[in-house]
């Protein structure tokens, strides 16, 4: 892309800007606590958040993790005013490289049913629909771990 940007790992002083980006781009959900999600992704070396900085502003993000089997990407977001300029592609490249460096060979992510726009974005980047259904259950974490 032609805009001068830096892609790097999140820092403590980025947290508010990342949350603002998630709200602006629509990836924040009322049932998820972004402060908790960011802290949880940063607590161990198998997960992190990559951000794109442009002129001192956080304009893109991707949360990345490897669970011992697959790589996962969440909270992929580009600032609305810069969408379509390559930020999404470049943050996904950074996410894939982070996983590659850790030996991960399959990357997965969730797309809400009916979100055709985002589906086309990921297809453009080489992702395909695995025709799987995501099942979920809320469990109480063990406070000692
Ligand atoms: C999805 C999102 C991250 C994409 O970021 P972006 O910066 O707009 O996308 P890019 O400009 O990097 O596009 C990368 C490529 O995908 C293509 N693409 C992007 N959206 C597309 C669409 N709707 N249809 C077809 N192609 C698309 C681009 O043309 C580009 O192709 P190229 O490599 O040939 O130039 C961004 O639109 C966004 O933040 N959306 C709202 C939040 C969201 O829904 N996130 C996903 C959660 S699962």
Radius of gyration: 15 Å
Low-confidence parts lasting 5 or more residues at pLDDT below 50? none
Q: Which topology does CATH recognise?
A: Aminopeptidase
Record field, number of beta strands: 5
Q: Major sheet, described briefly?
A: 5 strands, mixed
Beginning-to-end CA distance, first to last residue: 43 Å
Helix content percent band: 25-40%
User: What's the arrangement of strands in the largest beta sheet?
Assistant: 1-2-3-4-5
Count of alpha/pi helices: 4
Element-by-element helix/strand order: EHHEEEHEH
Shape: globular
CATH class: Alpha Beta
Structural class: alpha+beta
Q: What bound compounds does this protein have?
A: coenzyme A
Beta-strand share of residues: 15-25%
Task: Give the CATH architecture.
Answer: 3-Layer(aba) Sandwich
Query: Could you name the CATH homologous superfamily?
Result: Gcn5-related N-acetyltransferase (GNAT)
User: How many domains, as an integer?
Assistant: 1
Query: What integer is the average pLDDT?
Result: 96
């Amino acid at each position: 892309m032609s805009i001068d940007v830096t892609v790097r790992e999140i820092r403590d002083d980025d947290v508010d800007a990342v949350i603002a980006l998630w709200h602006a781009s629509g990836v924040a959900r009322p049932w998820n606590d972004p402060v908790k999600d960011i802290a949880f992704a940063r607590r161990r070396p198998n997960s992190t958040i990559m951000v794109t900085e442009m002129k001192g502003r956080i304009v893109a993000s991707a949360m990345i993790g490897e669970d011992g089997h697959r790589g996962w990407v969440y909270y992929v977001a580009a600032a609305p005013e810069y969408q379509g300029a390559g930020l999404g592609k470049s943050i996904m490249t950074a996410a894939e490289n982070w996983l590659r460096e850790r030996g991960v060979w399959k990357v997965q992510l969730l797309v809400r049913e009916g979100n055709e726009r985002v589906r086309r974005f990921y297809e453009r980047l080489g992702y395909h629909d695995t025709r799987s259904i995501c099942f979920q259950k809320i469990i109480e974490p063990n406070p000692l771990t």
